[in-house]
């Protein structure tokens, strides 16, 4: 039996992005071989690399901002030799920061690749886990497969207490607003709330009429691929091949007297053209069937752009927006009780973690993971300053010289200006939706600030 599930082959210049990928895969129960953790000083590293490849059930060839490195090229050729002999997967993986059209070596051209430029989570991460382990994603959900608890964290925890209250508000609002937009910064919806929202909609509308949809991830999907995927997840056979056919199928059900509930997520990493066509379809259906159709759209920057960037001309100008709530100490204490073993976190300790993380969900879970391993609280909060996930996000941004210059200026400031529902500066807008910035202050007077000192520290390390 292989010692590792996956060997991470990469350019050493892309280390922050690869560390973040390793953390994401470990969160799915995947054991990863990474050179900096396995190469013992003082020993010939070439032979240790060969042992690592031979001891892994698959190889992920990572392509990020700096492309394929010379030793990575050697690793790939060795991995492909083993793949031919043993039938093991060799998976090209495009990471955040990679160019729009990454150059893959010819001998990888016939292998299905996974595009993670949209983020290290969701459907694309589930596809990578599938390639590594052979476990396909749960059908029709667009979500990663459920795995056993990893590193002390529950694999599928229930919604947070504040999320349960938020979902109550969502269903109350649907009596008044046929279409709702739930805006969430990155990582905010990783706690099972979408599954709970779908289950509740099935209780209200019935299983056949409560549809959970997610488009194909990645910007390259054609209109046919985009709407065929949505159609299959809506139970349409044969799947529609364009926006008009997709809208027509839903129109037929509504005209026949059915009441439908559509929960649509995954709108940030999909085709921009497909996202816009979908918004137009939903607007048309809502205008004619507002009493029978309820739509909840969940997303971040891409969805916010559909709502706000074009003002009154937007296809979603009729939709009522709501922002997903921030974590509070009660949420953190509840999450701790679902760790393995369960943690009885005091309100004071929860507040310390919340303050150190700035409420960033990924950093909160990192702290709880360490606490579940028995680490003292000060060590847990200090470890947040070394987050490879946050470093990878900054690294992707800093590839552009102009953005790198802006980052250097912004990291030196504590106040980045007034918060707006649609932030005018594209760079600041990206940082906000990546959850590196937050809004602080009384309603109507909020200011944009860095999420926490750990985030600032990660940015400064990348720029150093």
TrEMBL record:
Residues 136-155 have a biased composition (Low complexity). PROSITE patterns: TIR (PS50104). InterPro entries: TIR_dom, Toll_tir_struct_dom_sf. Transmembrane segments: none annotated. GO terms for biological process: signal transduction. Pfam families: TIR_2. Residues 136-157 are annotated as: Disordered. SUPFAM superfamilies: Toll/Interleukin receptor TIR domain (SSF52200). Residues 2-120 form the TIR domain. This is TIR domain-containing protein. It comes from Candidatus Thiodictyon syntrophicum.
């Amino acid at each position: 039996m292989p010692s590792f599930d996956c060997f991470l082959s990469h350019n050493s210049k892309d280390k922050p992005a690869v560390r973040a990928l390793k953390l994401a895969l470990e969160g799915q129960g995947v054991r990863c071989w990474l050179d900096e953790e396995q190469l013992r000083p003082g020993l010939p590293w070439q032979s240790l690399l060969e042992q690592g490849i031979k001891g892994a059930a698959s190889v992920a060839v990572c392509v990020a901002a700096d492309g394929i490195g010379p030793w990575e090229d050697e690793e790939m050729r060795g991995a492909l030799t083993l793949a031919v002999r043993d039938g093991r997967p060799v998976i090209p993986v495009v990471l955040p920061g990679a160019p729009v059209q990454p150059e893959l070596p010819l001998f990888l051209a016939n292998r299905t690749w996974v595009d993670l430029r949209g983020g290290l989570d969701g459907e694309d991460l589930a596809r990578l886990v599938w390639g590594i382990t052979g476990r396909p994603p749960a059908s029709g959900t667009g979500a990663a497969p459920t795995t056993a608890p990893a590193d002390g964290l529950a694999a599928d925890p229930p919604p947070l207490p504040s999320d349960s209250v938020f979902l109550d508000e969502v269903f109350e609002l649907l009596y008044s607003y046929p279409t709702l937009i739930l805006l969430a910064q990155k990582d905010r919806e990783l706690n099972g709330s979408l599954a709970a929202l779908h289950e509740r909609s099935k209780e209200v509308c019935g299983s056949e009429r409560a549809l959970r949809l997610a488009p194909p991830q990645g910007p390259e999907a054609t209109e046919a691929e985009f709407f065929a995927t949505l159609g299959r997840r809506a139970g349409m056979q044969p799947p529609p091949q364009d926006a008009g056919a997709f809208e027509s199928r839903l129109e037929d059900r509504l005209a026949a007297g059915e009441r439908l509930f559509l929960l649509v997520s995954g709108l940030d990493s999909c085709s921009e053209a497909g996202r816009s066509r979908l918004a137009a379809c939903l607007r048309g259906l809502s205008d004619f069937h507002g009493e029978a159709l309820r739509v909840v759209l969940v997303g971040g920057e891409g969805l916010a752009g559909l709502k706000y960037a074009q003002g009154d001309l937007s296809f979603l100008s009729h939709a009522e927006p709501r922002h997903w709530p921030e974590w509070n100490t009660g949420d953190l204490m509840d999450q701790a009780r679902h760790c393995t073993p369960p943690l009885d976190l005091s309100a004071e300790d929860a507040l310390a973690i919340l303050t150190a993380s700035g409420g960033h969900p990924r950093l909160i879970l990192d702290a709880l993971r360490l606490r579940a391993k028995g680490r003292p609280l000060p060590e847990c909060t200090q470890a947040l300053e070394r987050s490879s996930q946050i470093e990878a996000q900054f690294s992707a941004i800093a590839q552009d010289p102009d953005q790198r210059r802006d980052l250097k200026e912004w990291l030196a400031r504590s106040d980045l200006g007034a918060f707006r529902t649609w932030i005018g500066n594209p760079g600041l807008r990206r940082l906000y939706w990546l959850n590196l910035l937050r809004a602080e202050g009384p309603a109507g007077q909020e200011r944009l600030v860095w999420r926490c000192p750990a985030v600032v520290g990660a940015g400064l390390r990348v720029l150093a």
